[in-house]
## 1
Amino acid sequence: MKWLTSLLTSSIGRKLIMALTGLFLCSFLVIHLIGNLQLLVDDGGVAFNDYAYFMTHFLPIKIVSYGLYAGIILHSIMGIALWLQNRKKKGVGYKGGKAQGSWASKNMGLLGTLILAFIFIHMGDFWFKMKFTDTLKMVSSEALGHDVKDLYKRVSIAFENPLIVIAYVIGQLVLAFHLWHGFASGFVTLGINNKKYTPIIETIGRVFAIVVPVGFVIIPILHYLGISF
Amino acid sequence: MKLHSNVPEGPLAEKWTEYKSKMNLVAPNNKRRISVIVVGTGLAGASAASTLAELGYNVKCYTFHDSPRRAHSIAAQGGINAAKNYQNDGDSVYRLFYDTIKGGDYRSREANVHRLAEVSTDIIDQCVAQGVPFAREYGGLLANRSFGGVQVSRTFYARGQTGQQLLIGAYQALERQISLGKVEMYNRHEMLDLVLVDGKARGIITRNLINGEIERHSAHCVVLATGGYGNVFYLSTNAMGSNVTAAWKAVKKGALMANPCFTQIHPTCIPVSGNYQSKLTLMSESLRNDGRVWVPKKLEDVKAIREGKKTGNDIPEVDRDYYLERRYPAFGNLVPRDVASRAAKTACDEGYGVNKTGLAVYLDFSSAIIRYGKTEAHSLGLHNPSEAKIKELGTKVVEAKYGNLFEMYEKITGENPYKLPMKIYPAVHYTMGGVWVDYNLQTNVPGLFSLGESNFSDHGANRLGASALMQGLADGYFVIPYTIGQFLSGEIRNDVPSTDLPAFAEAEKNVRDRINKFLSMKGGQSVESFHRRLGKIMWEYCGMSRNAEGLKKGRQMIRELRDEFYRDVFVPGTNEEYNPELEKANRVADFLELGEVMILDALDREESCGGHFREEYQTEEGEALRRDDVFTYVAAWEWDDEEPKVHKEELVYENVELKTRSYK
Amino acid sequence: MKLKLKIWKQKNQTAEGKFHDYNVEADEHMSFLEMLDVLNEGLLENQQEPVAFDHDCREGICGTCSLVINGRPHGPMQGTTACQLHMRHFKDGDTITIEPWRANAFPIVKDLVTDRSAFDRIIQSGGFVSVNTGQAMDGNAIPIEKDVAGEAFEAATCIGCGACVAACPNGSAMLFTSAKINHLDLLPQGKVESSKRVVKMVEKMDEEGFGNCSNVGACHVECPKEIKLENIARMNRKYFAAKLSAK
């Protein structure tokens, strides 16, 4: 097993962990976004609450969700460790000018830390309250035939507060920058980079970095404005 | 002193093979006990150090650079010759041998040159095996191109960076031996003296350039692969650090400097633009395949160009003097380097130089662009293409062939060579002269060997293009690994000498004394300013053309300059630190002595041959006049503070007939 | 043209360093290093200590020169070493900041001179083909596709100057290391030792104290030989393959 530990502790191995967890988290973002879009359905939260119940009670999803938590933790810890280590290995920086490369690529540590902070706030507000407290009211679900927690209500209350809406807008902006570099970078790390594929991957990455955060951010905004479909 | 070339008996083509099969060997168990010092890590040094280590010797290798990979072999552009005859165009070992002898104007040793031609083919194989990415044809086989002075295509190349790729190959072989513990590498160490024990070369004194430590190193023998001395001219295509110090220390300890006046002036370099200029940049010889060299016919045009009122493009065709094509119709713009350089000088001396300093001629690609453009248009099926279209197409072809060189020209001069003709002027490039060695590449000091450009052996009075790389690698990979055994087989009973011997102590003291002298002088002039003045004297009196009167004057001036140097040089700082000014002082001091010997040699050689042109000895048409009856010898100089002495090795030509070179 | 220079001065590796201000009168035709020569000549005339900087061939191929000019390794021009950078790219009255390569793996020797021997040690760990002199077969025995030879050549044009490390905000040597690995791996002669080479060279690179690559891409932008970023991806691929294969 020495080969595995030496692989995962080498500089390239650590990149690999960042890339794999990062791309895994990207795939989660897509699922999360699709689910969240149900908040925009004008049904008083029925579809969304059923979806929330399903996501927290269906065993395979539960298992994946533990993988997700592990991914977030691993990506964060490894990312912060690399960030600190790289600062040390660079030593003194330049006074005469800035390094080349996109702003996002040079500030992944900062962006990632902000995203982590956002995740804490976000999860504390919804996930924690739903799972570990009784602050959410119960509503009956026709489809499921029993009562479920009214997460929709909690979301609605939150998104009536302009400060929270602004926090979400900022959070998604940070995420956009993180993805702007992170998505394509993950593929480079995996060794997928050549004349043919790289332009395609880069374009997908840029589109992803815009579409996903925009998708997330329109939900609180539309909610705040009272628009639904 | 009688100089023994030690050329083995037998027919020319069999000498090396015969010799190899009969020479003394050192058994593997003894090789492990023997150590060799190699100074220099260019093509010759790195290839020698790695190969000797592969054989089992313990090698200690030194370079003043921060890494062996920085040696100036890296800057060679064009290619490396080998008699592979892959092109099926009639090449052979003999033809390469003959071209080299003839190109050298019959002033090199037959047996050495033949051996060089023989091993040339092995070099290519070795380099390919090391992963040197030579240019290839579509079929996957090695590509070749032609170079000046020959009629076959035998030059292997890696775009315009052949030297770099070959050096990296040798460097990697060296690094491999370092990793195996067979080579001990000393970066940023400069050899400042040679140590003789009982008349044999047994060690060196070095200065650690980082902290100034003076160190003693001993071994069974010493190999110098320290390059040429072109920087004696201050301005040359050599790297800033290239110097003669290691070789010169050997000369001061009794080795001989052979044919020091044989200097190659390369015709196509970017001209000097101002007094601040630190070095000159070569534009590859390959450019003369398509570029046409000219100056204006009318002096009023020259004046207008110098004043910036006209450019080369404004001069009509009839008012241009394509002087190489006029003077040498048979070879035209592709005459050998020495001939092309002298012709440029003549044009400028007559007042036709085309830049502010009056020292530049045009190298013009406009007709090549038109010619290629027309061919290209034809192959694209364009009838009656416009002139702009032809130029556009032609420019593309020229760009594909010489793009990187044109780019470099533009970076340096700020002028676009696709639109304006290039300005070029000859510059010092290579030194054929060097430490005298015999067939074994051993100097007259037992146990002291010299390889590559630092020796004198293979190029006579003029070197052909793409032959320097060949010689450096031949010496290092395929000659010294054999011939060194001739000496070392007699040393197997001797241990590595102790560095506590008086000879080491004395050498170290001399080094320290000289350094202290420089540092305590606290004069008023920088080392650089002395170097620049020396360069001007050398260029003026011992440059592209020489005469007795000028040479005598030059010698006097150098002696005066040397005295002034030791009175008034300013070297800041201390020995115990990284001190580039101190390094330069050590080197310039040696150039100041070498320069005098070069002048003496030029004065002594009363003939014109190759790169050495004595104005008194020329034909009516102004061509070089060789005097084979008197000067078919190697002039090997023994240093003396007052009057250096010349020793002669007669050159015996048993296989080629001495002829006058003609390119008309 | 009159210029103000802010140059990093540091006596030796352990000493404290700081910026010094200088004024210099330059000509637009000078190379950047010739401008520094003029500065040093002036300092020496006044019996002052000159600025130490590394340089040698001055034609962009030896890889010795190593100046960070206004925050950019080798200065503002694409694909150009500091020695090939000319003063015509600056304006009269400009202030130019000159710093040494910055990375912990490249300790400062003096002023603008750094110790890049870590690169040599990376090569020692496997950047070669294990073939002794005299063992080679004929150069044409193995045909190599022209494009492949060209690609290997492009990777092999690396001059080992260290600008990639200097440019990288993480001080990573991935571009240098990958260029060598790919140069050799692309050729049949080098392929034989491919797996062993990539593992050893990456190990050595980490051991020498270079930072971790985060695909910023500054290395490629500043590389005077424009070595492609694809080399890094290719090395990653080779590294995973070597590590995950059964051997």
Note: Chain A has a mean pLDDT of 92.
## 2
Amino acid sequence: MEILMAFVIGFLFFAAIYLILSKSLLRIIIGTGLLSHGAHMLILTMGGLGSDAPPVLADGVSNSSMADPLPQALILTAIVISFGVTAFFLVLAYRAYQELKTDNIDEMRGEEHDE
Amino acid sequence: MNSPLLPIIIPFAFAILLMFAPKQLMFQRIGAMIGAILTVGASVWLLQKVATDGIQVVTFGSWPVPYGITMVSDMVSILFVLTSSIITLFAIWYSYRTIGVGREQFFYYPGILLMLVGVNGAFTTGDIFNLFVFFEVLLMASYLLSVLGGEKIQFRESIKYILVNVVSSAFFVITVAMLYSVVGTLNMADIAQKVSEVNQPGILTAIAIMLLVVFGLKAAIFPLFFWLPSSYSGPPLPVLALFGALLTKVGVYAIMRTFTLFFVGDIAFTHTLLLYLSVATIVVGCIGALAVWDVKKIIIYNIVIAVGVILYGIATYNDTGLLGSMFYVVHDMLIKAALFFLVGIIIYITGQTNLKKMGGLMKHYPSLGWLYLIAAFSLAGIPPLSGFIGKMLLVKGGFEAEQTASSIWILLSSLIVLLSVIRIFVYAFWGKEKETTPINRSVYWQLWIPTALLVALTIVYGVGADAVMPYMAKAAETLANPQIYIDAVKGGQ
Amino acid sequence: MKLNNVIMRTMTQMVFFIIFLFSIHIFLAGHFAPGGGFVGGLLMSCAIVLLLITFDLKTVQNLLPINYMVLTASGLALALLTACISAFAGEAFFTHYFDYFTLPLLGKTELHTAMLFDTGVYLVVVGVTMIIIQSIGGDE
């Protein structure tokens, strides 16, 4: 299972980096979304896979069979944060598109004021 | 028992209050000012409490220590918190006349206060994932502040700024995941103890370098400073002063904390790397500061130099070096904010940022010229101003660590810093007078007063170094002996 | 954008309330079962978005005259105050209190301060999501 997860995470990172390196702003934003998904999967894997009972000490659940609740709490927090940042980024990209009339990151170079 | 939280909760409560009536100009201004004053007051009170009662610890929700989220106020963090709060207070004051009503009515002050929440939280937290959360709080607020106003350059530069920070945040999450899988805890004191128990194997050194990349991006160390000069040239000046004084220092603080608390098992590798990086950071900062003609960018490159100088003290990792770092970082935050304010006044008078098109300001604005000269000398470290003591301790620490060549380089870099800021003085204040559009004198004085007070504060900080030294010594002691921090967190409660 | 689609409009008027009630259910289920303020808030904003798609922005503004910025601020204030309750009581910030009450109709019920905090989260999520959607969808 860990091997499979490693491949999934690796693929997510690969796709994210490919998208972030492209020129279109929208693709870049999708890339950052994929990047954070990859990171969340990594937390899940790093917290240890295999124990599947919910992390509540009920009947028939022992310390060893219950899942680690901490990675889940971390992922939830990270998801909420990346939701907020992505939403902000989208709004900004839209406004920038209206203002600068382009979504091509190549055309957003700063002009050099210095001689 | 909840005292460490006060400098975080007060600005947060005021930010919420201000969100209810964004269009009420006086309400916004006065509310933000009261919030900032109360935060400074709470920080001073907390500083005294930490000085007399020792490290203050609170764990959310009354959980036992390694399980709950801990907030820790030791001397290091409270000094950072106090300095940030003071600078925010001055930035709010300075904003009244420079930022424009449009921004003031569009959540400018809540943005500043929320950024202070994030900054103070990042300085206070004792939990590595919580550090990430507070990083995001301050970054979100900084995104808002950097695009507020909606000029073309702001959009263009904010997109790059956000992209760099989103990627670095993802990297932070990845690193925290790695760290959790190796040590099985997120509480910083607990991590420090576990790392020292297992004697820092190679994997932890790798994680240390990953953390250095994350924090280095925030702190703008070599070679990760590339985003800083262009991103910081976008936002208006009070915001730039806040960013320049506070945001990079959060990264510096995080490096300071992690590389004195967790990763002290393989100093020969990690801290030598830090040493080389700090020297390289100073080199590129010096080149940048001498090469540009834009007054904003000259000061922006000086941020990079200062980050290198502060890191140098952490890299030498002895009592004198750490003491120098602590002393220098507080000095640098204050003086950078003051210099940005001064440059803001120069830009306000001349109406442009290009140094070549300025000249002869000394004739009509001598008060500004002398103030600038004092600030410039203080930045370069001319005794008895505040930069001198920090740098002297840093260099002494370098010699103690037998790093003669790099210590001499730190001294030489002071001369380059002096040259770069005096260049502004020579070109803008001396020479032939250039035509400027007439300005409102009362606005000029309203900008001059907060700036002068801030410069006066740095003078007091330098001249009264004897009074500050016990606090600094205590901070350096905490940094040098991680066990003090660990005992306070794990033994307390 | 205005879709003149009778089936869509009629269905939306019913489905909106179903989603709304479901979001309240998810929100209340939160403490012991999957759910909570964040998910509930997102569901609620989905319901409002459905209204926005079916009718136009102005009609929805008239239907639900809510200032989402004030909604967000109230949510934040509620969450902060709840977290501060324990600080006023002299315990650590965020300390959680609960007790059992006998309520009419519901019988013996467990009430938590976490619930108040979650209400704050619910309001913030609805507010923030709607601000974002309005600022993108606001101008055609």
Note: The two ends of chain A are 58 Å apart (CA to CA).
## 3
Amino acid sequence: MTVSIVLVSHSAAMARGLAELAGQMAPDVTLVPVGGLPDGGLGSALDDVTAALRRAAAAASDVVVLADLGSSVLTVDSALELDDELASVAVLAPGPFVEGAVAAAVAAHGGSDVHGVVTAVRDAGRTFARAAGGASLEAADEDAGPGAAGVPADENGSVTTTATLRNPLGLHARPAALVSRKVAELGASVLVDGVDASSVLQLMALGATQGRELTITVSGRDAAGAAEVLAEMIGSGFGEV
Amino acid sequence: MTLDADWAERWIRRTADAVADRRDELTALDREIGDGDHGENLVRGFRAVVAKLDARRSEADGSVGSPRLVGDVLKLTATTLMSTVGGASGPLYGTAFLRAAKVTGHEAIDTRTIVAMLESALDGITARGKAEPGEKTMVDAWTPAVEAAERAAGEGDEADALRAAAAAADAGATATIPLVATKGRASYLGERSAGHEDPGARSTALLLAAAVSALDEETV
């Protein structure tokens, strides 16, 4: 992996839980949770944070750090100020802690470089804001309209197809991660119901449930092949049916 | 009066005493507008620094060491606070002492250096916490303290500069009472943060008061 991830929380339990959650979607990424005080209390300890950064740095060429509140952020900043070597490989990515960590893990798993992972964290904040104003998201869906299934759509060489969600829980975290990872692997530019399918958070924000017909629009090299792979993946029910 | 490494040690030890004496008050302030751990965090942090100073002193017993520098005491304070305080005040005070240590690598410091030390501390806090005056944070105590020290240094000595800084920090802390917090944990409270003194500004006043009390070698 190019990028490993450090999750810094006031709470050791929160950091561990988040690493578990994000790790489920990105099994090959090194996620190092760190948090709390040595005595078990809430807070941030410089030595522990520095050790976590070193562990992550040993596992990948770059380290992306997410931190929850005030002193977590300040402690990461301090650790980087005190250690030039760490400062040259680690970067603190501002964004929502939980959504950002999930997005970062999936991006890193897809082979994104440090810039891509930091962007994923930042975009997680935007997706969050969009989900909060969910009405506009649905309006955008209607504007996009249903595409003509299986027909090469326009002069840009993009392909549109549809697939119906079959698994009972719909496009929840695990299948959304599978789709976005596949999109990264295919190297294609993909919209699913109008949202960027490389973003696990945007896919989840669709709130797509069982039986919904998803419109998949693919552009880029071998768009038709990629569209077919994705339609088949979604249609197969992600091994959940 | 010489501001040497002994003074710096007394400063830190008296700060440890002061935050222990006022622990309940700091915690009560923080409970009103924060997470209620400021007193506890600072007591733990400065106790850890004192333990390290004690350990270093017993190691040094009987050996002729290299000259002791003010900056060495401040750097030890910085790294220990960052590792043991736990809350935001750890990296904030830690960075303040770290930056202060960088300009005080001398056996004794003069008036100009004491002003530079306070300026560097404030710069460190501002760089780390990104707070500006008026946001109800420790910056509201540090900023007037630095300004007062700069003014006092023009006509007085290093003790005058420190006394002016401590008095201004005390007034600055009191002046945070009506402010609405826009930085730090208290900012989550919005308007409800008004009417309470900022705990970080108060502990800053205690810290600088201890620097003045450390001028006196006798009183402990």
Note: Residues 38-60 of chain B form the longest helix (23 residues).
## 4
Amino acid sequence: MGDVALLLAGGTVVDAGGTRRADVAVAPDGTIAAVGPDLAPEPGALVLDATGCTVAPGLVDLHTHLREPGGEEAETVESGTRAAALGGYTAVVAMPNTVPAVDSAAVVRQVQELGAGALCDVFPAGTITVGRAGTRLSPIAEMASLGVRLFTDDGTGVADSRLMRRALEYASSLGVTLAQHCEDPALSAGTHMHEGEWSGRLGIPGQPAAAEELMVARDIALSRLTGAPVHLLHLSTAGSVDLVRRAKAEGVAVTAEAAPHHFTLTDEACAGYDPVFKVHPPLRTAVDVAAVKAGLADGTIDAIATDHAPHPVEAKEAAFDQAPPGMLGLETALGLALAELDLSVERVLALLSWQPAAIAGIEAHGGPVAVGRPANLCVIDPAATWTVDPAALASRSRNTPYAGRTLTGRARHTILRGEPVVIDAKATR
Amino acid sequence: MRDLLSISDLGADGIEEVLRLTDSFVEVSERRIPKVPTLRGKTVVSLFYEDSTRTRLSFESAAKRLSADTMNFSVSTSSVNKGESLRDTVLTIEAMGVDAIVVRHASAGVPWQVAQWVGAAVVNAGDGWHEHPTQALLDCYTIRERLLERGGSGSFDGLVVAIVGDVKHSRVARSDILALTALGAEVTLVAPPTLLPPGIGSWPVVVSHDLDAVLPKVDVVMLLRMQVERQDEALLPSMREYTATYGLTRDRARLLGGEALVMHPGPMNRGVEIAADVADDPRSTIVRQVANGVAVRMAVLFLLLGSGSEAHG
């Protein structure tokens, strides 16, 4: 074998540095060997067609529930990373609300080992508090020493303001970022959707937008107080977007993400009582959807994160108020972002790849597409049209709210450290 | 009509049809042997995930008076928690061969889910805070009966109805509002803001926080059951304060016109939302509501399972 094992030919390269017509050659060691127009294919090299496609750094998800350990009925690291690779992702941050929670070095190592050899790199997040119970700090430094860069009690927020302050102060010396699921537990207890006209009509207990906004406002204040960075998970309300916009203008070290369902669906989707539309934070109003889109467009929101939350079929065949919240997202995020956001491919990729990579401190992903860099890439066919079929998803679960929806734009090839793990929208192993 | 899930499935014409049919079943109920062979060979199962004596008995009486076979599947919350999913339970019941499933569940929306899973007709007998359509139908029937007894036309046009109390958590209120406004009545909700649903501004109702001002103007006052356990949710300072401001006390009942009806879906908290002697006042229709409940449910089962249902395909 020569110096080139793989050639992505005929595409347009897009990364943080800009857009240019270029082929990408990948060396046998999994790094990028050459980037340039009309590279000659070496004998023996695999050539993947990228004509009409965008060649970009692989997507990076800040918010994936892989469910393992403990929730293998819903998803495993193997099935979740397969879904991720098919969605164009080369790296996912695995949320720590597993059973047991990722609140010790042992569980961090377990998830890291499960992720070794997967179709997508897995970066476990650790919890902020032991068992996500909100009372004692987790061994943040010990987990950080294993490479953990993001800490969160996701699923719930850290309600105790003093504890959150201490966590931020403690973490600030470690080069890690704390991420918050913003939800005031007193206002959200016992609720199952957004509080508004629809919840009133449907007779489903709802949580007001203020439940989220209170904690967004508090954490902005705590970041200002401590100087420590805070990443705000899955922002869903117009008020939250506005708070973050003002905090950023002031220079507070806050970053934020939004999930595809929060710029695609509204609370009206709950009208048929199908628990597949139940999610936390809940689907909001059209005004909130517009605000989330505006926040993604003007840079207030830094990343699109899936909040991929698999649940087994039987769990979602319960009453709406008894079913667990959460929806699948890895295989549909790219198509939804391209379809629903009125943004250029470059901006969409910034939100899906290099900006989340920077927030998560993942150096090997998110580009740039340059010689010597690890070849973590995805080739996107922006014209590919496909219809979401729950049964055809790679996830172990079926709880997508987009069944039957036709999307335009799909990951065609995904390259993980030089290995083509997805070719023509099919996993290679 | 395949199922009765919401009053909005019926519309004004459908409600009128049920009320007309109810007349004939009231007549059946007054016979010495109050039974007709209309639904012989049909099986009606009550699937009650929530305790209810009056509604379950009312549906069972209705089915039996129509000569249907009845089954009763009471599911305690604990056995549900043993793991059988709602869908599995429902499919098991359907496999026994049933024609109608009468569903009561503490969770809003369950009848919609059940209707998607089974071919049998589904009747909503109360889902969470959401709807209780047969209660609304019997309330409308009872109001019309009184209007006709007084020599009126029985029309709801311009009828002023006040619904007082915990609207937020009341499936009866949601169904009554839909039914009464569909028939042309003007509905005023009287409750403290903590007991009103979010988004009430878009409902076709008037909202008041002053019961004394509303009572002299109403033709009908419906009182909702105050659930004592709600006190824990800081919705009210105390039951005493609720009664003082929103209870139909003896003094307050004097503000009502002599012809005004006093209604309550039961079970009543005497001394909380309604004073004991007001409940027993001749203007009260509370006992009549229960009696009419059986006939209304006969009409609903007949529409779904009788010859009428086949004619509608």
Note: The first strand of chain A starts at residue 6 and ends at 9.
